[in-house]
Amino acid sequence: MNITFEKDLQAKGYIDEPIDPTLDIVAEINRLKKEKNAVILAHYYQESEIQDIADYIGDSLGLSQQAAKTDAEMIVFAGVHFMAETAKILSPSKKVLLPDLKAGCSLSDSCPPHLFAKFKEQYPDHLVITYVNCTAELKALSDIVCTSSNAVQIVQSLPEDQKIIFGPDKNLGEYVKKKTGRDLVLWNGACMVHEIFSQDRILDLRNQFPNAKFIAHPECEDHILAQADYVGSTSGMLKYTIEDPAQQFIVATESGILHQMQKSSPNKMFIPAPPNNVCACNDCPHMKLNTLEKLYNCLYYEQPEVDLAADVIQSARKPIERMLEISERFGL
Ligand code: 13P
Ligand code: SF4
């Protein structure tokens, strides 16, 4: 790599070398994938065109499970930084690429590890469960990691008298408290996408579509979850829309999931739940930093790469592996 290219990558966080406009990017990505023995893992919140080219599309738990078991030499992670880090922690010998290194997460940012370490000091007899949406450094301070698919089961798997700190998402934490009846000490973090849904506008929609089911992700606030017919992770929500006989669904999560819902149930209607602002969309600005062009460049140049210090990998791996073991026990 030449110096200009390296500097450009550091400044932008992604490679924007010009792409030949006559190139069939999809065909080229598929060719490079085979040539380099690479696998593309994509979260449901990615652009439709990225989802359509991925080898595996899933929620945070499914993506971690895939990252742990893939025999590909290279993992291209179409998601956000903490997800690519988790893949690197689980498969440290593999090259893990992220199309845009600046694809972060507001929830992860809401919990800086040095502040969390101080917070944890106040509760020395508590076990620490962290939601996977956090940095590798924060995972290294944890006992067990969880995702929105398994947070309830992970808490339930612990003895009744076990004291627990749960972070960084206070909304998921409140939801888990309700479902398990346990008293968790919560970190005060939240996701910018799931905190903006408007209760009044959702009620208006429900009046307009009285037969529609309202489904929500547990990162949403309590007053939104209280109205929901179903609460679950992105894969749980998708499964619900496939299995439930309703023909219309109001969906309170990032809008990328609607692509798979519509593909799986082409005759059903999916309505994004309206946010509290004038913007009509529920896009995660971090997830949407990835584009097909960046994905192509990243596979072609094998950059930007996500790397972590060996000691962080070692300490963050144990709580993630504990999560995977408990999930397997619950058949998740
Ligand atoms: P899940 O993938 O667990 O549904 O979580 C959604 C999310 O916010 C990922 O950033
Ligand atoms: Fe983070 Fe929220 Fe975006 Fe998920 S949707 S990556 S939690 S900011």
Summary?
With 332 residues, this protein is α/β, with parallel strands linked by helices. It has helices spanning 3-12, 25-35, 48-53, 60-69, 81-90, 106-109, 113-121, 136-140, 151-156, 170-180, 199-208, 222-225, 234-243, 257-264, 292-301, 310-329; strands spanning 38-43, 56-58, 74-78, 95-97, 127-131, 144-146, 164-167, 185-186, 213-216, 230-231, 248-252, 269-272.
Alpha carbon gap, first and last residue: 42 Å
Q: Any idea how many domains?
A: 3
Give the distinct bound molecules: 1,3-dihydroxyacetonephosphate, iron/sulfur cluster
Can you list the strand order of the major beta sheet? 2-1-3-4
Classified by CATH, the class of the largest domain is Alpha Beta
Rg calc: 20 Å
What does it look like?
This protein has three domains: about 5-105 and about 285-300, Rossmann fold, CATH 3.40.50.10800; about 105-190 and about 315-330, NadA-like (Rossmann fold, 3-Layer(aba) Sandwich); about 195-270, NadA-like (Rossmann fold, 3-Layer(aba) Sandwich), CATH 3.40.50. The protein is built from 16 helices and twelve strands. It has helices at about 5-10, 25-35, 50-55, 60-70, 80-90, 105-110, 115-120, 135-140, 150-155, 170-180, 200-210, 220-225, 235-245, 255-265, 290-300, 310-330, and strands at about 40-45, 55-60, 75-80, 95, 125-130, 145, 165, 185, 215, 230, 250, 270. Helix 13 (about 235-245) runs parallel beside helix 14. The model has no long low-confidence stretch (mean pLDDT about 95). The chain has about 325 residues and is α/β, with parallel strands linked by helices. The site of iron/sulfur cluster has 12 residues, from helix 6.
